[in-house]
Amino acid sequence: MPRFCSCLAVLLCAQLAPAQDALPPKVAAILDGPDYAHSRWGLLFVDAKSGDVVYAKNPDLFFCPASVTKLFTCGAAMVAYGANHHFVTPLHRRGEVSKDGKLDGDLILVAQGDLTFGGRRAADGTTAFKDGDHTYTDGLTPDAEVTDTDPLFAFKSLAKQVKVAGISHVAGEVLIDARLFAPARGTGSGPAAVSPVIVNDNMIDLVFTPGDKVGDPAKLTVRPETAYLRGDIGVRTGEKGGKVTMAEPGEDPAAFVLTGSIPLGSKPIVYAVAIERPAEFARTLLIEALRREGVRVDAPLFLAPKVALPDGKVGYEKLPVVASYESEPLQDALKVTLKVSHNLYASTLPCLVGAKAGKTTLKDGLLEEGKVLKGLGLDTTAISFGGGAGGSRADQVTPRATVQLLQALKKRPDWSAFEAALPVIGVDGTLATILPKTSPAHGQVRAKTGTYYWDDDANGRTHLVSKALAGTMTTKSGRELVFAVFVNDVPLAKGVKTRREGLILGKIAEIVHDDPPR
Fold it and tell me: At what angle do helices 69-81 and 330-339 cross, to 10 degrees?
C-alpha cells in the first residue's frame, strides 16, 4: 500500500526537519567559492544540550581529518587510563651493593611510556608548552621555541635517588628496557621513532643566537647538554634582514655536521635534531646524570651493551627499585598533544592504549583504541585510523563521528580536563593566531586543528589534502555547540600557504558564533 502525506503534513514535516542545507549565507558563499571548485566540504554543528542539528553538509561522508585524529587518540587514551593517571618509571638494581657503595651489577631503567619524562615540568609543577613547538622547527623559522624547563629533570632526580640509596659506584652496566611495546613509526612531521622511552621529545635542540657582528660564529645552546651529539656545527652571523640558511645534515648524531647563517639582530632560531635510537639516547643521558651526581659508572658512554634483560615482570619482581620517577598527570601530556598538535605523543598513545591491555604492537594498540571508541558509543564504521597523529593514508572520519566523539566525552566526569586541553581560538596553541583579539568569537571556541598537505611538483604548488577544525563553542547568544568542519583536496595557487584555509575555518567558526539559528 503506498504511503503518502497530505500537503499539510508535508509542510509540517518540512518545518520540523533539521535545516541540513540551510547554511548561513556567508558560510555558503565560502564553500561555493572558486578556490574550492575541485574540493569537498563536510561540516556538522550540533546543539550540545538538545543534540539537534544546527547546520550540516555531507555529515556522513568520509574526510581526511589530519590532526583532528588526535581528538580520537587522546580521547581513547584518557578513557583507558584516566585523566589523572601518573606513569611511574622505575630504576632497578641487579646485583648487591657493598658497604663502600659499589654495585656489583647493573642499573636498569624500565621505560613506561611517560610522554614528557619531566622535560616539560615548570618551576610551579605545571607542564609547559610553547605555541610554536620545537618539534615542528626546520631551523628556518623563528616561530619554534623551547620551553623554560630542564629536559634532564627526571634523570637528575633518578641520579640523586641512586646516590641516596647508597650507590656510589656502578661496576656493571646501565641498561634501558624499552620492551613495553615494539618500536613503531609516527605518522606526522617531527621525530618519528615511537618508543616507550621519550626524552625531550627524542630531540636535541640547537638554539642559535646571532653574534655581535656579521661573520661572527652564532652563539649556540645545546639542549639537553650531552656528549651524545658528536659533530661539527658551523653556523655564523649573516647580514641584518637576511634569510636564515641551514644545510641539510645527516641523521647520525655521532657524525653530525651543520652549517648555515642566522641574520644579525634576529631572535633565536631553534634547530632540532631528531633521535632515531631513543633507548640509546636515554642510556647516555642517564650515565651522564649519574656521573654528574658523583656516581662512578664503569660502563662506556656510547658502546651498546650486550647484556640480557630480566625475563619480564616476573624477573623484575626479584630486583629492588633504587629510584623512580613519577610523571605529571596524563591530562597534562594530553594538553600538550592537543594544544600544539604534538605528533610524537599522539603516535605513541595508541601503543600505550594497547600496552594497557597487554598488547605490544601499534596495530594491536589501534584495535584496542577502536574498542574503547566503540564503548563510548561511536559508530566505528564511520572512522578509520592507521596511526595516532593524523598522517596515515588510512585516517578517515565523518563529521558525524567526530561530533559523536565530543558528545560522548562531554558526558564523562573528566570532560573538563579534556576540554581544557583544546586550543582556544585567538588565545593559545594552534589556534592562537586564527582570529584577532577584537573578534567576537575570541576565546569562545575550543577546538583541534588539522593540516595535511603534499607538494604538487607537477604544478609547482601545494595540494592541501585536509584542513580541519573540530570542538566546542559558546555562541554570542550563549548557546553551546559541538562541531566539526573539514575541507579536503584544495589545490593551492603558487605562493598560497595552508594558513589561508586555517583563517577561513576560523572565519566560519566566527560566523556561526555570531549568528546561529534559534
Answer: 180
